[in-house]
Design brief:
The chain has ten helices and four strands. It is mainly α. It has a single domain, classed as Arp2/3 complex 21 kDa subunit ARPC3, CATH 1.10.1760.20. The strands form two sheets. A two-stranded antiparallel ribbon has the order 1-2. The longest helix is centred in the C-terminal third of the chain and has 40 residues, at about 305-345. Residues about 230-240 and about 345 have low confidence and may be disordered. One of its GO terms (cellular component) is plasma membrane. Its main location: membrane. Keywords: Cell membrane, Membrane, Transmembrane, Transmembrane helix, Transport.
Length: about 350
């Protein structure tokens, strides 16, 4: 659902840019509370994983494909504020290096794909956890539903932005019907990927999953008439997987997905591209400012073999994203440490 340059007019793009900047500022402050020395490295990995999986377009209807948006996945794994930052880092890397998503439309894309999906999915996720049994399975179920609803929500948000600042004269009713219809189908794929990924991480390190924190209440025993916390049970072997092992496994998986599996992704246009072509939204689309980038369109310039070119571009993208994301979250964690140090030192 990467919006190209020219779909939305300049004033509306500027307003969404301001909205996105404000949301990022709020998210940077909020991420300080979500990130610590255990979860900060995971956040950089989540950004890289989202980048990799977004390269895996899957067919959803005749001549149409979809891909992960990632807002729900990021929010549940590392928290809503950090999730907004994760998806924003991915969008920035894609726009600057791979000419995917317009640079003048960066505010539109961050608002739609990072902010809307994260806010909607996390609100749904928390609402479901409030009524479901306090079990790990409930986290998976809530993840599925939250991710499923986040994608059509993003389609609705795009339709509203297009209604305000669209550059072509197309019936908003037709745009809304087409966008929501195809993105409900894409949402199913988003839900499956999100639920499987969240359940996999919970299986090995539930303590690192933001959405699963506080899921299990501490067992209490009555001793001499008083309630006391029972000793914590010994964690199973799977749950004692080290953070380093989890990080390396996640990075290798991302590299394999982007560097190899992506070659077999659907070549059909994604939901927005298909609707834009069919309804005439793309009549005033502009050439991307980074169209001459050596990595434009997820290929390496001067590498003639398509499989090798796409694979190298994917590997480079994962590497750049994990470095950029890790740098951002390391800086946020450092800022948190600086904020709490006076308390720790008694000053």
């Amino acid at each position: 659902m990467h919006v190209p340059d020219g779909f939305i007019n300049a004033p509306t793009s500027a307003v969404t840019g301001v909205v996105a900047a404000g949301a990022l500022a709020v998210s940077l402050r909020g991420a300080r509370r979500e990130l610590d020395e255990r979860t900060a490295p995971l956040a950089g990995l989540v950004a890289a994983f989202i980048f990799a999986v977004q390269m895996l377009n899957f067919p959803v209807a005749a001549g149409t494909s979809g891909h992960l948006l990632g807002g729900a996945l990021a929010a549940i794994l590392v928290g809503p504020y950090t999730g907004v930052l994760c998806v924003s880092v991915v969008l920035l890397m894609q726009g600057v290096l791979f000419a995917d998503g317009g640079l003048t439309a960066l505010g539109v894309n961050i608002t739609d794909m990072a902010i809307v999906t994260t806010v909607v999915s996390y609100a749904v996720f928390r609402g479901l956890l409030a009524v479901l049994p306090r079990k790990r399975r409930s986290v998976t179920v809530a993840s599925f539903v939250a991710a499923l609803l986040s994608v059509p929500a993003a389609a609705v948000a795009f339709t509203l932005m297009y209604a305000i600042g669209g550059t072509t004269d197309v019936s908003i009713g037709k745009v809304a019907t087409a966008m929501i219809g195809v993105h409900v189908l894409i949402g199913i794929g988003e839900a499956v990927i999100t639920a499987l990924t969240v359940s996999a991480v919970i299986a090995v390190r539930p303590d690192l999953v933001h959405g699963a924190r506080g899921l299990q209440q501490r067992l209490q025993l009555r001793v001499n008439g008083d309630l006391v916390d029972a000793p914590a049970p010994t964690a199973p072997v799977a749950a004692r997987t080290s953070r380093r092992t989890l990080w390396i496994t996640g990075l290798v998986t991302s590299l394999v997905l982007a560097g190899f599996v992506s070659f077999y992704a659907s070549a059909n246009p994604d939901g927005l591209e298909k609707v834009a072509h069919d309804k005439g939204i793309d009549r005033k689309a502009e050439k991307h400012a980074a169209a001459d980038s050596p990595l434009a369109d997820y290929g390496v310039r001067d590498v003639s073999d398509a499989r090798l070119s796409g694979g190298l571009a994917g590997v480079i993208g994962v590497g750049v994203t994990v470095v950029a994301g890790s740098a951002v979250f390391w800086a946020v964690r450092r800022r948190r440490s600086a904020d709490v140090s006076p308390v720790n030192t008694g000053l």
